[in-house]
Amino acid sequence: MERQDTELERPAWAPPEVDIDTPSIARVYDHWIGGTHNFPVDRELARKVAAGNPDLPATLKANRAFLRRAVRELSALGIRQFLDIGSGIPAEGNVHDVALAAHPDSKVVYVDIDPVAVAHGRALLADEPRAAVFQGDLYRSQEILDAADTRRLIDFDRPVALILAAVLHFVPDGDDPLALVRRYTERLAPASALVISHAGAEEVPRAAPEAAEQYRGAVSQVIWRDNQELAALFEGLELVEPGVVRAPLWRPEPAETPDPGLAMLAGVALKPGG
Ligand SMILES: C[S@@+](CC[C@H](N)C(=O)[O-])C[C@H]1O[C@@H](n2cnc3c(N)ncnc32)[C@H](O)[C@@H]1O
Known about the structure:
The chain is an alpha/beta fold. It has one domain (56-270): Rossmann fold, CATH 3.40.50. The chain has helices at residues 25-32, 40-52, 56-76, 95-102, 115-124, 141-146, 148-153, 177-185, 209-218, 227-232, and strands spanning 81-85, 107-112, 131-135, 161-165, 193-199, 238-239, 245-246, 264-270. Strands 1, 2, 3, 4, 5, 6, 7 and 8 form an 8-stranded mixed β-sheet that branches. The site of S-adenosylmethionine has 20 residues, from helix 1 and helix 3.
């Protein structure tokens, strides 16, 4: 990673423990989705990666827009608790904003493996007792489910929406993503929900091979799955309409003109028995 020659002045929102002169993938992502929690080094890396894959920022924005619509719909169904694993930086317009706008008694727990995302998240949520963020690994389900913040904010006897947005594509088949998902969903009460978005297999050819390589180098190995493979991760749950579709096509707002070509699949399912 490149470093800047000049030291930047640290803004009040940037926690002291984060390095603002070295790019952070969490802040690169924040920049792509239109956030303000990023620095020139992050924007420079974002520009380089997106130059090879011009659809990437729009795809990630469409993913976030899907997430907001899903939270709104689940709030309308009466869900008040959200566990968002692989959340990234929970900046403006994220799950807690949507959930709390729908119902002021909603509770949101964010978890991410990236300490930089968590540090920014902690600063952002410092004055919000109804939401928390902590560092955790999706693979370590017991630690996440038993964490102090989870126990303080989430009552597993009542419905919870588990959000795995743009994170399961980092879990290879050899690590059994369905078994991983089930370690969480088996703890959820009836009428709980599972929200997934995932890099979509059909779209791989749209990205130039070198761009895919660049993205891999900058982020992590991405496993592309198709609709059926993604639907299989909802096994045992009931997919709500319209099922697994490209993220922009999942219940778009009437005013939106979704670009169906974007390479992100999405779906929402409910746990039966509610
Ligand atoms: C592409 S971003 C998605 C951010 C957000 N969920 C969204 O959809 O806009 C993926 C996030 O997953 C996190 N992540 C990757 N592997 C993880 C793991 N094993 N456990 C927890 N978080 C993980 C990364 O640090 C990153 O913040």
